[in-house]
Design goal:
Its main location: membrane. Belongs to the TonB-dependent receptor family. This is TonB-dependent receptor. It is a multi-pass membrane protein. There is one protein chain. Helices cover 3% and strands 56% of the residues. With 771 residues, it is mainly beta. It has a single domain, classed as Maltoporin, Chain A (Beta Barrel), CATH 2.40.170.20. The strands form 7 sheets. It has a 26-stranded antiparallel β-sheet that branches. A hairpin with a 5-residue loop joins β37 and β38. 50% of the residues are buried. The N terminus is likely disordered.
Length: 771
């Protein structure tokens, strides 16, 4: 580990400040959209963005050109790959249900502690948090494709009053293409991953194709993008049996092929086979329309459509005396008998069609007052999962099973925003304010299937389980960016939120429960202060409170795993966090550096943990979690050699559970999935206008998945391990319109885990035509 990590660590320590790539406001002289600024920066750039006018804290950004040059991007979340302190738990190309964003003080089990937007439309799924109910609550990354990204902005921490308490970790805003003239793009990509793990050895390939066209004519402009992905991922789950659970004797079919090992608590076990090897086929289509009602007033509409079809299939390592695979029933391994359940090697068929709508009317006078009205809708038009209840190999051909349906699930938002500049652009104050409402509806119904699980309809008279409910948050906010003096700027903000949860219900074939409506209201103050210490150095301090309300899934749908078990707590308290940071930024002429000291204290953190005295988990409040850390990074262009761009970041986080009456054994232990150390580094060399070569690396230290840190063996299935990976990319501009790229992700073929195994060495190639 040290030989991999020390070079990255040394590069970070040598840099006293982190580079911040900022977005500067365009003015009448047509200043370049991307430029270096210090202090509290302004975001405008002539394109729609959910980010408020004044950003009172650390932001990072990456442009379309940098993504194309630097990153082997097969999904939109790949744009975040080398951002400081960020990690997306992407397990394979097209990962639609587990790709959760991790931030400075939040792990990959906390999807509800970050906010992801596309052109101001909410992509974060606040119906739940993490993975539960046999469902998923990862951001809806599939509604954005890499080819349509114009830029990505990331704001760290809950320091803007414009965002809900879910912004405790970070706010990510994707800005997609909206052309000023006719343009068209066609791209095709291929990836190949030779994978060898336990008893599985196979190469998994993926294909991707996309096309887009856009233009502007008079007051109208449009953008159309379509994308198709066909992906084979590596096995993600494994059937296991602890050796201690075997009974000595000769009972059961003698089998070979079981692989001995140690589980996360170092108990001996057998790996019996692989599961959840997905064949994923996805289609994406998006239409964006904009109309300039006046030179300073624009109306826009976005329609996004996403379709997914995935099949998860198993592989047994066990072979009987006749050489045939064994999937269920009594077996015997080395003189001990075990019993495999009929679903030990499970299959699944997923079928989803989701749609997204967004509409806005926005003024951009850059005078004393600008405003925006916006609304969005995300609809689970079709969302079904079919699972057999009979054993393999018969299950592959049909038989009994269940159908889980999430029809009727979704969310909608409505917002009004304004910006007031009392004395125009050069005034001492810029006041941002707004109000709105966000509403969420969850409905998960699981039925036995009539006839064949592969195609039979749900038997509505044979309910297995059902959960559902609604939540709604109404809010008001305002923040004032005040230039106290030429060297000083303060940003003061306040957010008020009124939250309610209602219509909560759980049901099985023999019982029904309904929960009372509940509501709470909270204020969240924000403050930031920036001081221009010298021409090239700025100091900033920020503090903010965030209240993250329980999701419908946490209130009414908490489970012990894939099966719904209705172990709920409809009276969960909201998380309440205070986050602060102190930053120093320095302009190096050809780059920027920044150092940020951050601290977060969260009371009543929402985590799934064991109920005392049982082996069952449920979502509960953890009394207090505290995180203190330091983030360093650097980014510069043409360093020493013309065409050489460098970037690096280093993050240290001491994140511990301070108090937890429900589980005293967890007190003093590390917060799950938040590593103590993480780092990134990249170098891009462009020797000419045609060629670009990039080498990049990522490192993460030891992590834990359990609150009590009992998972001491991280390098195995269900573990959360350290990793060090190196990525390579070469891009060649063949002519003015045609370009090609070749890349290798995880070139050093590091085997690492985040419960599921991450991809091994993956080769990619792409061809792109631009007009």
């Amino acid at each position: 580990m040290k030989k991999h990590f020390l070079p990255l660590m040394a590069s970070g320590i040598a840099l006293p400040w982190l580079a911040q790539t900022a977005w500067a406001q365009n003015d009448a002289t047509d200043t370049p959209e991307r430029s270096k600024t210090l202090g509290v920066v302004t975001v405008n750039g002539g394109q729609p963005s959910s980010l408020p006018t004044q950003i009172p804290t650390t932001i990072e950004g990456i442009t379309r050109e940098e993504i194309e040059t630097r990153i082997n991007a097969t999904d939109s979340e790949d744009a975040l790959k080398y951002m400081p302190s960020l990690l997306v738990r992407k397990r394979y190309i097209g990962d639609y249900n587990h790709a959760i964003l991790s931030t400075r003080a939040s792990g990959t089990g906390n999807s509800a502690r970050s906010a992801v937007y596309a052109d101001g439309i909410l992509l974060s799924n606040y119906l739940g948090n993490g993975i539960a109910n046999g469902s998923n609550y990862a951001p809806r990354w599939g509604l954005v494709t890499p080819e349509e990204i114009e830029r990505v902005d990331v704001m760290y921490g809950p320091f803007s009053a414009a965002y809900p308490g879910n912004s405790a970790g970070a706010v990510v805003d994707y800005v997609t293409r909206m052309p000023d003239k006719l343009e068209a793009h066609v791209a095709a990509g291929y990836s190949s991953q030779p994978n060898h793990l336990y008893g599985s050895s196979q190469t998994f390939n993926s294909w991707n194709s996309s096309a887009s066209i856009g233009s502007r004519s008079g007051d109208w402009s449009f953008w159309i993008n379509v994308n198709h992905t066909d992906s084979q991922g590596q096995p993600l789950t494994f059937a296991t049996a602890t050796q201690a659970s075997g009974k000595p004797g000769s009972a059961g079919i003698p089998v070979s092929g079981a692989i001995p090992g140690l589980n996360t608590t170092n108990l001996p076990w057998y790996i019996l086979g692989a599961g959840t090897q997905y064949r994923t086929q996805q289609d994406h289509a998006k239409i964006k329309l904009a109309y300039d009602i006046t030179p300073t007033l624009r109306a826009s509409y976005t329609l996004g459509w996403w379709q997914n079809s995935s099949k998860g299939r198993p592989q047994s390592y066990l072979r009987g005396p006749d050489g045939q695979p064994v999937y269920s029933g009594p077996i015997n391994i080395d003189g001990k008998s075990y019993t495999l359940s009929p679903t030990a090697f499970g299959l699944s068929n997923d079928d989803q069609t989701h749609t997204m709508h967004g509409v806005s009317v926005k003024s951009h006078t850059q005078g004393r007052f600008d405003w925006e009205l916006s609304a969005s809708l995300y609809d689970y038009g079709r969302d079904q999962q079919r699972v057999p209840t009979v054993a393999m190999p018969a299950a592959a051909l049909g038989g009994s099973g269940t159908l889980q349906d999430q029809g009727g699930t979704g969310w909608n938002t409505l917002a009004a925003k304004g910006t007031w500049r009392p004395q125009g652009l050069q005034g001492a104050h810029i006041v941002d304010f707004g109000l709105g409402r966000d509403a969420y509806k969850l409905n998960i119904s699981k039925y036995n299937v009539q006839g064949d699980w592969l195609s039979g309809p749900a038997n509505l008279q044979s309910l297995v389980s059902q959960v559902g409910g609604r939540s709604e948050t109404s809010y008001l906010w305002a923040q004032d960016s005040w230039r106290l003096a030429p060297q000083w700027k303060a940003v003061l903000g306040l957010r008020w939120e009124d939250w309610s949860a209602s219509q909560g219900r759980t049901a099985t074939a023999g019982s029904q429960l309904a929960y009372d409506r509940r509501s709470e209201a909270h204020f969240s103050p924000k403050a930031a202060l920036a001081y221009q210490l010298s021409r090239d150095t700025t100091l900033k301090a920020s503090i903010g409170r965030a209240v993250r309300f329980p999701t419908v899934g946490e209130l009414y749908g908490a489970t012990t795993g894939g099966a719904l078990s209705f172990i709920n707590n409809p009276y969960l308290k909201p998380e309440q966090s205070w986050t602060s940071e102190l930053s120093a930024e320095k302009d190096l002429g050809n780059g920027l550096l920044r150092a940020t000291l951050f601290h977060e204290t969260t009371k009543d953190a929402l985590y799934s943990q064991l109920i005392p005295g049982t082996t069952t988990s449920a979502v509960q409040n953890v009394d207090k979690v505290r995180t203190t850390g330091l983030e360093l990074a650097y980014a510069a262009q043409s360093v020493g050699i013309r065409g050489l761009d460098l970037g690096a970041s280093l993050t240290y986080a001491d994140s511990r559970i301070v108090a937890n009456a429900a589980n005293p054994a967890s007190v003093g232990k590390w917060q799950p999935r938040v590593p103590r150390w993480r780092a990134t580094a990249y170098a891009t060399y462009q020797p000419s206008d045609r060629w670009a070569f990039t080498v990049a690396a990522r490192y993460s230290g030891r992590q834990y998945s359990n609150l009590d840190n009992s998972d001491v063996n991280a390098g195995t299935y269900m573990g959360a391990s350290k990793y060090f990976t190196v990525d390579l990319r070469a891009r060649y501009q063949i002519d003015k319109q045609l370009s090609a790229a070749f890349g290798i992700d995880n070139a050093n073929n590091y085997q690492y885990w985040n419960f599921h195994p991450y991809p091994q060495r993956t080769y990619s190639a792409s061809l792109r035509w631009d007009m």
